[in-house]
Amino acid sequence: MHLRLFVILTLVSNAMMLNPTATKRSATKDAPEDCRSCLVCSRENGCESCPDKLFLFLNREDMRQHGSCLHSCPAGHYGLRGQDMNRCMKCKASDCERCFNKDFCTKCKGGFQLFKGKCLTSCPEGTIPHLTDCIEGCQLSLWGEWSPCERNGLRCGFRWGRQSRSRESRRGPEGASPQCPTQHESRKCRMKKKCPEERRKNERRGERKRGRKQQRLLNNTTATEPPGGT
User: Fold this and answer.
1) Which of 38, 76, 75 is nearest to 55 (CA)?
2) For residue 120, what are the β-bridge partners?
3) Least confident of 21-30, 70-79, 146-155, 208-217
4) Are 168 and 138 a contacting pair, CB within 8 Å?
5) Per mean pLDDT, which range of 38-47, 61-70, 164-173 is the poorest?
6) Cβ distance 78 to 101 under 8 Å?
7) Separation of alpha carbons 140 and 171, rounded Å
8) What is the DSSP letter of 1?
9) Pseudo-torsion of CA 39, 42, 44, 50, nearest 10°?
10) Per residue in 13-44, pLDDT tens?
11) What percent of the chain has pLDDT over 90?
């Protein structure tokens, strides 16, 4: 009896040693919901190992970190495949939303322009901004005239407004340069504070006011003259 029990225990022990992953999987059956996609998981740190097609993402908060297994890495990270495990690695630049590797950005955060894998606050000389990228090799016409100074569709009645101008793509010989988008710029401008209609109203109001004043002076002069004149 004892010999039979010893043999059974030995077989079970050997099976566990030959397949430790199965043992770890069974240990996670009662783990939290966010451990369901893991190969190895702990209640304190979440996923520690992921299936082949998933990426291990470590979310760090202060001194703690929590792992999860994802199909694609979140913003600011890229997927790095390895022999032992696939991991989500952080992009080097903080202004990069998506990157191909640590140093090459493919999409920038808002307020930045993408140029040759870098996120810039303004496009370098010889390039123009278009959507979220800087385009180089464009041939553009000279700037057009500034538009009238306007605000809310009006050209008077305010102290300040805005005006704009543009320049268009100028295609050279075929294949010499890409077709570039029209470029626009705007600036602050001073408006005429008084509209013509308002100015005319003010002029008429002033004329009436002067007429009333002259009439009062005339009435006062007439009232002070002695009877019979001079």
Assistant:
1) 38
2) 113
3) 21-30
4) no
5) 164-173
6) yes
7) 8
8) -
9) -10
10) 555 454 444 434 444 455 566 677 888 888 88
11) 25
In this structure, the number of other CB atoms found within 10 A of the CB of residue 96 comes to: 26
Nearest to 31 by CA among 62, 2, 69: 69
Burial of 183 (0-12, 13-18, 19+ CB in 10 A): middle
Q: What are the structure tokens assigned to 6, written together? A: 């010893």
Domain 17-90: CATH architecture, name and number where available: Ribbon (2.10)
Strand pairing partners for 87? 56, 80
Query: CA 84 to CA 54: how far, in whole Å?
Result: 12
Helices 20-27 and 2-18, packing angle to 10 deg: 90
Cα–Cα distance for residue pair 159/139, rounded to 1 Å: 37
DSSP 85-104: --EEEE-SSTTEEEESSSS-
Please name the residue that has the structure tokens 């082949």: 52
Tokens of 227: 């009877």
Quote the strand ranges of the chain, DSSP E: 40-42, 46-49, 55-61, 64-70, 77-80, 87-90, 96-99, 105-108, 113-115, 118-120, 127-130, 133-136, 160-167, 183-190
Position 157 confidence tier, pLDDT thresholds 50, 70, 90: confident
Tokens matching residue 88: 């989500």
Q: Please name which of 138, 141, 190 lies closest in space to residue 166, comparing C-alpha atoms.
A: 141
